[in-house]
Amino acid sequence: MKTKKIVADNMPEAMMKVRHELGKDAVILHSKKISAGGWMGLFKKTKVEVVATVDPYPAASKKNNAVKKSISQLDRKKSVPQVQVQKRPEFVSQQSSQDWNHRFPAWVASVEHALRHTGFSETHVASLIEASLKRWYTEEHAQADHVKTWINDQIRAQLSTLSHGPVQVHHRIVQLIGPTGVGKTTTLAKLAAHCVLQKKQSVGFITFDTYRIAAIDQLKTYADILNAPVEVVYEAKDVSKAVERFHDKDVIFIDTAGRNYRDGVHADELQSYLVDAEDAVTYLVLSLTSKYEDMKKIYGNFHNIPIHKFIFTKKDETSCYGSMFNMMIDHQLGAAYVTHGQDVPEDILSANVEQLASLLAVKRE
Fold first, then answer.
1. What is the per-residue burial (b if ≥16 Cβ within 10 Å, else e) of 25-59?
2. pLDDT over threshold 70, residue 236
3. Angle at the Cα of 241 (from 236 to 243), degrees rounded to 5?
4. Higher pLDDT, 212 or 281
5. Distance between CA 188 and CA 286 in Å, rounded?
6. Residue 163 burial (10 A CB sphere; 0-12, 13-18, 19+)
7. Under a CB-based contact definition with an 8 Å cutoff, are residues 135 and 74 in contact?
C-alpha cells in the first residue's frame, strides 16, 4: 500500500497535493499542525502535515456516491478536492455501504440526509455542505457536533439578506395570488381580521374567484363577521370600479381565483384582473405541503406579475420546510407571513429571520 507524508500551508492545499500525487482514491489517515522552517528556532511557520494512502477498494457503485456528488462540486471550484477523507477515526460513519460511503466523516452523511429529507434542493444542499467542508478542514479542533451549528448559521445568514414581514410601505390594496387549495381566502380573512380587530381599520373585500361558489360564500361569511362589504367581480374591467366603490376604506383585500397556475394560460388571465397601482401589494401564497418543482412552475408562470413577497401556508401539516428556503433564496424574495392552521385570526404569524431560521434548522438529535 502506497503511503505518503505531505506538508502544506493549509488543509485545502494539502488535499490538492494528495490528489495530485496519489489520485482520486486517496484516503487521509492522519493530519496535524506542525511548526516548520525558521532560523535557529525563530520565525517558524505553522503548517499542516498529512499522512495519506491509496484506497485499495475504490467504490464502484453510483448509488453509493450521493455524498461524492457534493464534494465533486467543490473540486470544480478549486476549493476542497474530490478526495475520500477520514479526518479522525472516531468521526467515520459506521453505516453500511448500502447507505452512505463510509470513508467520509459521519456528519456528511447525516447532515446531507437531513437537508434532503426536509426538502432543500440539490443546489442548496451542495452549497451548504461545501461551506462546511471548507471550515471542517481548516479548523484545528473541528468536531461533528459543530457542523449542524455551521449549517444553521449559513441558513440564517442567507435569510438575513432578504426582507421579511409585511411590506413596509403604505398600501391600501392587498391582493393574494396562488393556486387552488393553498388557503388564500382563509389567509385573507386572517389579515383583514387583524386590521379590524387590532388596528381598528375599515376594510372591504373584492373577489373574482367565481369558479368556486363555496369560495364566495366563505368570504361572505368572514365579511359578515367583520362587518365588511364584499364586491364580486366577473370581468377584469370591473375591478377598478369595485376599488373605486371602496374609496372610503382603509384597506381593500382582493381574493383571486384559485386555478391550476402550473398552466401559464391561467396565469396570464389572472394578470388582467390584478390592480397595478403604487398602493397595491401582491403576495404569492404557496402551501408548504406542495412539491418544490410545482412551486417553481407556478412562480415561473407568474413572471409578468410583480410579486412583493411570499406567504407560506399549512405549516402545521408538514415538517419539511426546505422548499420555502429554496423559493426565497432562488428568487430573492422574503416571506411576509407563515400560517399554521384554520383559526381566524390566530393562526398566522408575521415572518422574521429567527422564526424562519428555526423552522429550517437542521435539528440536533
1. bbbbeebeeeeeeeeeeeeeeebbebebbbbeeeb
2. yes
3. 100
4. 281
5. 13
6. middle
7. no
> How many Cβ atoms sit within 10 Å of the Cβ of residue 161?
11
As a whole-number percent, the residues of the chain with pLDDT over 90 amount to: 41
Q: Which residues pair with 26 in a beta bridge?
A: 54
Q: Which three cell numbers stand for residue 87?
A: 479526518
Q: Cis ω on the peptide bond leading into residue 105 (within 30° of 0)?
A: no
This prediction's pTM:
0.71
CA distance 363 to 152: 9
More confident residue, 107 or 343: 343
Which pLDDT score, from 0 to 100, does residue 337 have? 96
Task: Over range 68-74, report the average pLDDT.
Answer: 41
Write out the three cell numbers for 242: 369595485
State pLDDT tens for residues 10-40: 876 777 787 788 876 677 666 777 877 655 4
Cell numbers found for residue 72: 465533486
Grid coordinates standing for 274?
390584478
Residue 12 identity = P
What pLDDT does residue 86 have?
Answer: 40
Alpha-carbon 104 to chain mean position: 26
Question: CA-CA distance, 277 to 187, in Å (whole number)?
Answer: 22
Nearest alpha-carbon partner for 95 in 108, 82, 80, 106: 106
Helices 184-197, 213-226: axis angle to 10 degrees equals 10
Please give the sequence-ordered ranges of beta strands (E in DSSP) within 246-306, or none if there are none: 251-255, 280-287
